[in-house]
């Protein structure tokens, strides 16, 4: 049977790619992905054929992968982070309905939430949720409801896609919503360019986060009511007794 690996390559650095992901790419005849992600792995897998599509051509990219697999080639479709977390795994299964003779294997990777959490300290030790602020595929009204529900339930909230040129004030709007239920002194953190050149991090309050400039390469962490700063790190206690 023809086969496609759907591979999460992690946040950026080759060292943060799983052994299984690297093995899948080494075994593949062709590696397909968004141009930026292909550029992250190209130097480590010399001799492979690379095929790319730009942003917003996700369906075309999936069809390309299946068409290559139909030729009997072993294909890897790569995604940043984890293929099943805001990645291509779901769409590959949807498009794959038209290619019943092609097998899919999903290979997980380190997503920005866990990669960024390791940089900041330990913000995700207790219950948390991930919310993308991109309204390209999700109406803002639904995003707003999720932000309010998560804040009221006192989740730690990890925000993906917090800003772009067209959405420059979305993080500010998100903070204003969460401030209805969270204290302005809630400990928060941001990480830019996780595991890539130029990585940086900062711990701050929710009040300060509201007025912080971020971009699409920033992952944002908003603590719960117990999250604290310890030695410049963001830490959410699990609640162990006698600590």
Explain this structure.
- The mean pLDDT is 94.
- Strand 12 (228-230) and strand 13 (233-235) form a beta hairpin.
- The longest helix has 13 residues, at 58-70.
- The protein is elongated.
- The chain has helices at 19-27, 35-41, 58-70, 89-96, 112-120, 140-152, 170-178, 206-210; strands at residues 2-8, 30-34, 49-53, 75-79, 102-107, 121-122, 128-132, 156-160, 187-192, 200-205, 218-222, 228-230, 233-235.
- The strands form three sheets. Strands 3-2-4-1-5 form a five-stranded parallel sheet, with helices on both faces.
- It has two domains: 2-107, Cobalt-precorrin-4 Transmethylase, domain 1 (3-Layer(aba) Sandwich); 112-235, 2-Layer Sandwich (Methyltransferase, Cobalt-precorrin-4 Transmethylase, Domain 2).
- With 243 residues, it is an alpha/beta fold.
Measured by DSSP, the beta-strand proportion falls in 25-35%
**How confident overall, as mean pLDDT?**
94
Strand order of the largest sheet: 3-2-4-1-5
Our count of domains comes out at: 2
Q: Using the CA coordinates, give the radius of gyration.
A: 19 Å
Helix percent reads 25-40%
Shape estimate: elongated
CATH H-level superfamily title of the largest domain:
Tetrapyrrole methylase, C-terminal domain
What is the CATH architecture assignment of the largest domain?
A: 2-Layer Sandwich
| Low-pLDDT runs | none
Report the CATH C-level class of the largest domain. Alpha Beta
Which structural class do you get from the secondary structure elements?
A: alpha/beta
Largest sheet: 5 strands, parallel
| N-C termini distance | 54 Å
């Amino acid at each position: 049977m023809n086969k496609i690996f759907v591979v999460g390559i992690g946040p950026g650095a080759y060292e943060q790619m799983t052994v299984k992901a690297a093995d899948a790419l080494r075994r593949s005849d062709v590696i397909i992905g968004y141009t930026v992600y292909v550029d992250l792995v190209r130097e480590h897998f010399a001799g492979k054929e690379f095929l790319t599509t730009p942003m917003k051509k996700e369906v075309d990219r999936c069809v390309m992968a299946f068409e290559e697999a139909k030729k009997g080639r072993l294909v890897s479709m790569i995604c940043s982070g984890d293929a099943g977390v805001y990645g291509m795994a779901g769409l590959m299964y949807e498009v794959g309905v038209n290619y019943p003779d092609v097998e899919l294997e999903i290979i997980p990777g380190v997503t920005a939430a866990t990669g960024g959490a390791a940089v900041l300290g330990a913000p995700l030790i207790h219950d948390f949720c991930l919310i993308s602020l991109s309204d390209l595929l999700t109406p803002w009204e639904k995003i707003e409801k999720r932000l309010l529900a998560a804040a009221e339930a006192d989740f730690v909230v990890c925000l993906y896609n917090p800003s772009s040129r067209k959405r420059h004030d979305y993080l500010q709007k998100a903070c204003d919503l969460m401030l209805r239920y969270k204290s302005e002194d809630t400990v928060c953190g941001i990480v830019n360019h996780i595991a890539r050149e130029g990585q940086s991090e900062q711990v701050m309050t929710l009040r300060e986060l509201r007025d912080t400039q971020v971009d699409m390469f920033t992952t944002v962490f908003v603590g719960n009511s117990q999250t604290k700063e310890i030695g410049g790190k963001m830490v959410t206690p699990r609640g162990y007794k006698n600590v």
